[in-house]
Amino acid sequence: MGTVNKVVSIVILVLALGAAAMSFLLGKKREVLVTGWDKMAGCINQTATSLDAGSDTKYAQKLQKMNLSHTKFEDLDKVLPELPKQAEAVIMQRDSMAVAMKEIATTLELEGIAEADAMKSVNGYSTGKDKLLELVKKSQERNNGVIQGFVTSCNKIGVKASASELKDFEKYKDPVKNFDAKVTKINKRMTSYESHIGQLASAVGASSPTLGGDDFETSLKDTVTAAEALMNNFEQTKKDLMNEKDRTKTTEVKLEEREQKIVSLEKAVSTKGNEIDGLKKQISQLSGSGEGNKEDITILEDGDPRLLKYLKGKVVEMNDKWDFVVIDLGKHTKVKQQVGKREIDNVVMLPANEEMVVARDLGTDNQFVGKIKITKVYDNCAIANVLPNPKGSSAVKIGDTVYFSEDAITGILKSKEVKKVEEKKPEEDKAEPKKEEEKEEKTEESSSDDSSSEAAE
What we know:
- With 457 residues, the chain is of the alpha+beta class.
- The chain is 60% helix and 11% strand.
- The longest helix has 51 residues, at 2-52.
- The chain starts with a helix and ends with a helix.
- Among the domains are: 91-147; 159-240, no CATH class; 261-298; 303-404, Thrombin, subunit H (Beta Barrel), CATH 2.40.10.170.
- The protein is elongated, with a radius of gyration of 52 Å.
- The strands form two sheets. A six-stranded antiparallel barrel has the order 1-2-7-6-5-8. Strands 3-4 form a two-stranded antiparallel ribbon.
């Protein structure tokens, strides 16, 4: 019994010593684990803090070292998922930036840029970034050079443009549009010059010059030489004409004799003219229009083109961009027709596609400004294009006077007469015999007048 107790005591002692040794070893291991845990928590917090910097995120506040402590092991499942979430956000940002950089290169047509996957590489993104920045810089330099060249070209042809406008995403449209319009006008002008100079060359007997080639100066010199030769011939012709005038002096005596006869005939005509004036006055008095000529008692109807001579208007609005004006004349415009001592209101039918004269200070200096062509007629106004100004004329302004010239009115009357003739040609064919009778009557009247003149002489 004593032996058994000794053995049991020894075993207990051995177990106690083993337990003490294990406790010591476990304590040391625990200290190592706690230290490593704290380092890992600190590293996680430091990483989250670095990723939060400049990213406008707050993952580091949730991944603080104290929240990752070994004493809060139960809360790790709530806190630790924030770390991969932050990593996913950073990866998404990286991928988006890589794709955006590739799309920028593609949009700007920059060659030699790596694909987006290569931009994502930690080892390769720096090379791709530097290449992209280099090409973007070159592209910007090229664009600035093109813009500056465009501005210089605009200034040469009189188009207002600046580099700041061309760099603006909206304002660039106007100078580009104005430049295109100006170039179109220049091309049209050059074509017109070439056509008219070609006609001039043909008139003076020179070959038609080609203004579009590099040798246009030589072609123009040929035309000038031919024109000078023609002028020399003209001067010689003038000399010959002077010689011919000397010869005509011998016939002046005979002309004087005929002039005396003409004077006597003019006296007879004057007498007849006085008689005609007296008859006109009588007609005017009978019609109630007072003294005046036949034109005074002619009452024109609404829309008669002859009413255009009374029509005058003003320029009330301008559009310099499209080169048209608005005038205060329209379909319902009225004028006052002088009939003897009376004035009659008449509606004037403002014709479209006709030219009007533009003048300034009408009634004083009467400065000629230019011409306009009516394109659209409304009730109380009309729109007209400004025709190219002749050399030395002024630009059209608001307040300028517009009116129809006598030549324009004559042309309108002729056009209307031609239209009437075309519409009434069948009726005229039927009335032809009647016209022949009237012609014979006029011939008899003319013969009678001639006889009267001879008798008066």
